[in-house]
Write a sequence for this structure.
């Protein structure tokens, strides 16, 4: 069964700007770049605040990218539900990410009435080697 999105890239970016502005606390570094059946992709353009000694993007920044991407993939398919929340997120850091743009593609593995399970893959833009991989579970509030 294919799950079709009901929100566009523009819809999602606008929703983040208006209903979730805290995602832009460090400047506008997160951008939705693609949405399709069962997935969404976001880009992170890290700034100085996201870089750790040794010239790497910090773990908390990668975690945030995975979490926000999972949220975006979910709402792209169920609509702008501001109160959908993370109930679990597990991340594996696989490679040292250089301080350059990253993208996270998040796929919906299961979309139920109350819970969604998603898979997030983070790579350097233009590369296929995984920097980090996460799985997330989101709670969907009753309608």
């Amino acid at each position: 069964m294919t799950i079709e999105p009901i929100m566009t890239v523009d819809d999602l970016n606008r929703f983040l700007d208006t209903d979730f502005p805290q995602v832009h606390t460090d400047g506008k570094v997160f951008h939705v770049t693609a949405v399709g059946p069962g997935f969404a992709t976001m880009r992170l353009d890290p700034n100085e605040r996201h870089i750790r000694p040794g010239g790497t993007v910090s773990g908390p920044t990668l975690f945030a990218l995975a979490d926000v991407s999972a949220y975006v993939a979910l709402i792209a398919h169920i609509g702008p539900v501001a109160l959908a929340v993370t109930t679990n997120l597990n991340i594996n850091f696989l490679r040292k990410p250089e301080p350059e743009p990253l993208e996270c593609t998040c796929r919906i593995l299961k979309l139920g009435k109350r819970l969604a399970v998603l898979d997030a893959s983070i790579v350097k833009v233009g590369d296929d080697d995984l920097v980090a991989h996460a799985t997330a579970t989101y709670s969907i509030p009753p309608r």
Remarks:
- The two ends are 23 Å apart (CA to CA).
- The chain has one domain: 9-139.
- Residues 59-78 form the longest helix (20 residues).
